[in-house]
Amino acid sequence: MKKIFKNTIFLSVCGLATLIVAWVIAYLAVQDDYVLPSPWATAQAAWALLGKGAFYLVLLATLGRAFLAFVIALVLGVGLAVIAYLYPSFERFLRGIVAVLRALPTMAALLLILLAASKWGVSEYLPPVVIGGLTLFPLLYTAAYSALSGVDKDLLEMSRVYRVPLSVQIKRLYLPSALPALCREGVAALSFSLKLIVSAEVLAFTSQSIGGWMQTANLGYEIAEMTALTAIVCLLGILIEVAGVWLVKAWEDRRCA
Amino acid sequence: MKKWALALAACLAAGAFASFGCQPQTETIDVYLPDGAPALGLALPMYEDTAEDGVEYHVVSATTLHTFTTGKTPAAEVCVMPVNAAAKLLGDASVYQMAGVLTHGNLYLLAKEDATYTRENISDLVGKTIGVLQLNNVPGLTLKACLQGLDVPYNDLSGGGEYSDSAVNLRAVPTNPMVLTGADLYLLPSPEADWRVDSGEWKFVGDLQALYGDGGGYPQAVIVVKKEVLDSRGDWVRSLLSKIDEGVAWLSTAEKSVIAGAVQAHLADGLSPKFTAETLTDGAIARSGIRLQRMDGGAVAEVKSFLQNLIEVDGKFAAMPSDGFYWLGDK
């Protein structure tokens, strides 16, 4: 019995069940389907959505934008982190820029980007990707730089003394030390990217997007559908994170074996 | 000592109960409405509103307006809301009835180019993209009904569709804020449309009210009232409707600062006003489509016909209310 209460999956499921119970209690307290629909109405609406072919196209489009924003932020973040690690002056130069980007109010920045996009006739699909990339970049840059800085200094000194080739240093020293931490942060960032992109799509009313569908449902007083879309995005975010953590762990176990 | 304490407690309790029982029962009538043209329609009642008249006006966000009419105990005794929302959410007439039509359309096509789109040349819109505020609400549904009625094909991009050069493409624009991006023309309500045109970049190129039907507009914002208020305070409802009637003429003579001030004094906390004394022009007021129409046989038929057109466009966003939804008691 004690074992089950230490089981992570069991406890996580209990946590989710608590949320659903809280939802039911809130629904019974509010008593207004146009403010807070019930979990069962939401499940029905979700089932209806899953039966529509257009939903999958729109979902893929949103996931594609989330992935693109993540990749852009990852490439820039890791690339600049490597340069910053090699050249401390560059790191100090970047420090202020990263701090500004970290503090940037996301939705306000989206409005500015939308205005610029309108002015220059840029595709409306781009602003959510740009805002996703701008928000994720400081997270991934910091994670990459910390991972590189965390490599054992004694091992680095030893590599220099024994004149170990750079390629071997990267393969045998830097990557094994830095990759696990970077992968864990990357998985969290990918899940976060989905949330960011959907939020931006809601504000920008991006067509062919989950966020756009949420706005449409809201305007049509289809609150159950809007809640269902929200729940689906939450579930997807959780799945991405769980799958990512599992993949990282499997890779680490294989490496150790 | 104990007896004195008990006696004192009993007196205090009796006094509390008595004062509670003697408190005058205030029956405040709460009127909820969105900013924009509906707020202009009720500007005179709001201007003359006093703290003692037992009426409170609340100008709230259009996005959350419906929450004041739904649920077990809706807050609004009177509400001005889009006709399709009223029909869909309240059309069973269990709590509310429709007492009048306040606005008859205030939607205009804007573009940067010099052009004029009428019923005769509306097919010139094929291949172009129109950005629509509230594409799946009355504005968008009305535009679709117009295009459908004139046999002009349209393509709704919000449902995952691709751009088409053999149809009029319709794209939703964000409601807050209204960023005009990615379309050739925009369908916007007055007074926002007037503000855009006054800024110099945009021009009026089409009037949706003229495109629909015989050019007399369509029921857009309607006034719904709780049945218990209609039963117990029918005279007050009639006086409100008369005041709204009076207000239409008042809008053209009153100072803009007075009109804007009357509305802003009743804005919900944290809500930005849709218009100010500077942006509210005579043209904006004239284009707001404010004209009170009481519910009679003709008005009911007009509402039903309009709702039927909306349902034929997309039954998801409109519904036909029951016949008991119309209050014909304003005699």
Q: Can you describe this structure?
A:
The complex is a heterodimer of chains A (257) and B (331). Chain A is mostly helical and 257 residues long. Chain A folds into 2 domains: 1-30; 43-256, MetI-like fold. Helices cover 86% and strands 0% of the residues of chain A. Chain A has helices at residues 2-6, 8-30, 39-50, 53-86, 88-103, 106-120, 126-149, 153-161, 166-204, 210-219, 223-256. In chain A, helix 3 crosses helix 11 (223-256), helix 4 runs parallel beside helix 7 and helix 6 (106-120) packs across helix 7 (126-149). Chain A is globular. The mean pLDDT of chain A is 88. Chain B starts with a helix and ends in an 18-residue tail after the last helix. Chain B has helices at 2-22, 37-41, 43-47, 83-90, 138-149, 192-198, 208-211, 227-232, 234-251, 256-264, 282-286, 297-313, and strands at residues 29-34, 55-60, 78-82, 96-103, 107-111, 129-133, 154-156, 168-173, 185-189, 203-207, 221-226, 290-294. The longest helix of chain B has 21 residues, at 2-22. In chain B, helix 5 packs across helix 12 (297-313). Chain B is an alpha/beta fold and 331 residues long. In chain B, the strands form 2 sheets. Chain B has a 6-stranded mixed sheet with strand order 2-1-3-11-4-12. Chain B has a 6-stranded mixed sheet with strand order 7-8-6-9-5-10, sandwiched between helices. Helices cover 35% and strands 20% of the residues of chain B. Classes of the chains: A mainly alpha (257), B alpha/beta (331). At the A-B interface, helix 4, helix 6 and helix 10 of A face helix 4 and strand 8 of B.
